[in-house]
Amino acid sequence: MPWDDQFETMPVDKLKEFQLKKLKETLEWVYEKLPFYRKKFDERGIKPANIKHLEDIRKLPMTVKNDLRDNYPFGLCAVPMDKVVRVHASSGTTGKPITGPYTAEDLDQWTECMARNLWAAGVRPTDIVQNAYGHGLFTGGLGFHQGACRLGCTVVPTSSGMTERQITLMKDFGSTALFCTPSYALTIAERAEEMKVDVRNLPMRVGVFGAEPWSIAMRDEIEVRMGIKAMEAYGLTELGGPGVSFDCEAQDGLHINEDHYLAEIVDPVTLEPVPMGESGELIFTAIQRRAMPMIRYRTKDISRLRREKCACGRTFIKMDKITGRSDDMLIISGVNVFPSQIEALLLDVEEVLPQYVLVIRKKGYLDSLTVRVEAKPEVYALGTEKRSEVEKKIAAHIQGMMGIGVKVDILAPKTIARSEGKALRVIDERPKG
Ligand code: DLL
After folding, report:
1. Could you read off the pLDDT of 333-362 as tens digits, one per residue?
2. Is the CB of residue 318 less than 8 Å from the CB of residue 353?
């Protein structure tokens, strides 16, 4: 049984009717309240009343991250500040942060979306949940907190970092669920092994991970090392945070909370829709939010949509795990490469740890890729000859599977900085501009 039996299993035609109703209301709302959208719609000669079918959404202009930056901090907020009860923000590595204001009702909807997410992951009111997402401006900490509170779980808001303490509390409190980024889950697993704590023998049974791309191989690795089910959450600050889509027990794609988010997939270059089932960039329209509804937001996240019957009974459309971002897609010798593909290949190699960094440099006109990966301590100890053998083996594996030549550097264990939040996996040393 899903958390919400009204929407999560609603027949698709009814769901679409509901979406159209909410879309129309939202378009009227932004057109009336926000000069930003009114101007963009007027430039295209479109009035909200022209949208009569869901497909008509394609007539509307898209919104991009820069629009949010240009309107920093609250230019895209459609309600007066006295109706805003919370503001989150995403740090971003460059430029101004992206802000996410919420009305009380927006917060309530978000909480409901997170409750669905956690319930579908198998979290129950009896769980003691250790929430190791960063608490603060980042939407992960408080989003998961609210969802777990709604379920009635025992919530332990550890936030991220202080890894030893995470493990001690996990043991002392008997935590049964863990919320954090997948890379931090691995950091915890590794530290626990060093502390001679076998997480597999603790009551911990399920993790809900997200906020960064991770491969299925990495999911399997976490499941084996921690002896838990590794479930997923997806979302972004611009759309209210996690809770946009979520894993169910089938672990076969993430159900999108379709009564709140209208999803499209487009070709990232032409911005034209791609046929259902084909890979492209995810575009979302938030159809129930009021402080900052988003119209056709370009996520830059690459995925596929699948409308199919799911074993769990939910009718919500599914998106595949994110395979990368259209903007950090690497092009190496003409081949499109996503860091997650390389990660999956590294996890096939038994001599190395799942700790890696990809370094991109420019060599003449061509990009070159160096994969820096840590060896397991016992392999590293075997000396340079063994290391260069493993380097060659990995390079050949990547060449064989992806058709690109890379340089592999085997590093000593513990040389790559461990993640407490989103892992830094790519260092781009190409000249800018
Ligand atoms: O990362 C929200 C979140 C918190 C999601 C906790 C899940 C769990 P931002 O900081 O705004 O929001 O970053 C959003 O992170 O566009 C994706 O590129 C990436 N991302 C989020 N979830 C996933 C996921 C939060 N499950 C950006 N898989 C998004 C892959 C993800 N990438």
Report:
1. 566 677 888 998 999 999 999 999 999 987
2. no
Split at pLDDT 50, 70, 90, the class of 94 is: very low
Distance 212 CA to ligand 1 centre (A): 5
Query: pTM of the full predicted structure?
Result: 0.89
Cβ neighbours around 173 below 10 Å, total: 14
Distance 211 CA to ligand 1 centre (A): 3
CA 295 to ligand 1 center in whole angstroms: 19
Question: Residue 420 is encoded by which pair of tokens?
Answer: 């407490």
Residues near ligand 1 (Cβ within 6 A): 90, 133, 139-140, 210-213, 232-237, 241-242, 299, 301, 322, 325
User: Pocket of ligand 1, candidates 214, 301, 325, 329: which has the most ligand atoms within 8 Å of its Cβ, to mutate?
Assistant: 301
Q: Residue 343 Cα, ligand 1 centroid: separation in angstroms?
A: 18
Domains and CATH numbers, the chain: 1-326 (3.40.50.12780), 330-428 (3.30.300.30)
SS3 content of the chain, % helix, strand, coil (to 5): 35, 25, 40
| CA 264 from centre of chain | 17
Cβ-contact 283, 62 below 8 angstroms: yes
In 261-315, alpha helices (H): none
Residue 354, H or E segment: strand 352-363
